[in-house]
Design goal:
The chain has about 110 residues and is mostly helical. It folds into two domains: about 50 residues, Tetratricopeptide repeat domain (Serine Threonine Protein Phosphatase 5, Tetratricopeptide repeat, Alpha Horseshoe); about 60 residues, no CATH class. Helix content is about 80%, strand content about 0%. Helix 2 packs antiparallel against helix 3 and helix 4 runs antiparallel to helix 5. It is globular and about 45 Å long. The model has no long low-confidence stretch (mean pLDDT about 95).
Length: about 110
């Protein structure tokens, strides 16, 4: 997503801070632009306003990768499980297979001593 989308969505959340969809879309844009810290912030805000807004397998996968990089494997596992659930529900077979592999890795890392 171009930086223009991030600017537009940032303005949208400033104008209507309780709009879950705007926070969620901004989280997606930020995650795709490799700004995971801000993406987590807007993701958390979005799902606290409306948990049903959480529909993106890709966003959950990107957040899982962010948490894994931060060595927070329990959170990585949780987001990868959500990504897998959403991918299965949408019928994304290729993504489902990929997310299953990542989930296995995160679970192994989560249960191993740090």
């Amino acid at each position: 997503m171009p930086d223009g989308a991030i600017r537009y969505l940032s303005q949208a959340v400033q104008l209507v801070p309780e709009d879950a969809q705007s926070h969620y879309k901004l989280a997606e844009a930020l995650a795709q632009q490799k700004q995971p810290g801000q993406a987590v912030e807007h993701y958390t805000k979005a799902v606290s306003i409306d948990p049903k807004v959480d529909t993106s397998p890709l966003l959950n996968h990107l957040l899982a990768m962010y948490y894994a990089d931060a060595r927070q494997f329990d959170k990585a596992t949780s987001h990868e499980e959500k990504a897998l659930e959403l991918a299965r529900a949408a019928g994304y077979e290729t993504l489902t297979k990929e997310f299953e592999k990542w989930l296995k890795v995160y679970k192994q890392l989560s249960s191993s001593p740090q």
